[in-house]
């Protein structure tokens, strides 16, 4: 066994283990999105978040399968499994590039959907609505108020007529039980979160975008290495077969 072949075998085994770890991470992220969705299913037309979550879980399943195939193919040097492994890696790589391109192409549409949905949620906000619970959850957790700023509540259809120009209690700074008069001070950060929730959501996304991009680049490199290793072992298995056949024929010579 040549050094290149041995390196390729070990490489496939390591890549298989990495893919198992990545698959576990994707299952966790996808499950977290589905669990979090229940807090926002009436806000920002949030059903679109289930599409990428479903894709994440599907890719996790595919990566788990690739991890198994990669370990077995690297150990057995089976031509069929090596071909399957190469094909699966190519499919995942294509899906990764396509999803990145689509995400970039539709980024403005997604942002508009979030902003419009938040506007609708504020208009529908009243004591017995689902939107109330979900907007309160969003404002407390992101430390924000309104869509663009706290003054959005002045124009909320259901809230404004009865609120006496005060924002909801969920806009109060954490740890402060602000009074109605303090909840009227839209620009006072001592009592009220002054930044809008849309801006906060954008910042959250941008903060995580670098990690997402870095992970995608790392996976791309790993998949390309896996494809190279599978090609080397596939070609090596052909050479071994030809050498074996050549030895049989040479033994038959007189």
Automatic annotation (TrEMBL):
Transmembrane keyword on record: yes
Compartment(s) where it occurs, according to its Swiss-Prot or TrEMBL record: Membrane
Recorded topology in the membrane: Multi-pass membrane protein
Origin: domain of life: Eukaryota
Keywords: Membrane, Transmembrane, Transmembrane helix
GO cellular component: plasma membrane
TM region positions: 12-34, 54-75, 82-106, 209-235
Keyword Transcription regulation on entry: no
Major site of localization recorded for this protein: membrane
Similarity annotation: Belongs to the tetraspanin (TM4SF) family.
Protein name: Tetraspanin
Natural source organism: Crassostrea virginica
Gene behind this protein: LOC111128557
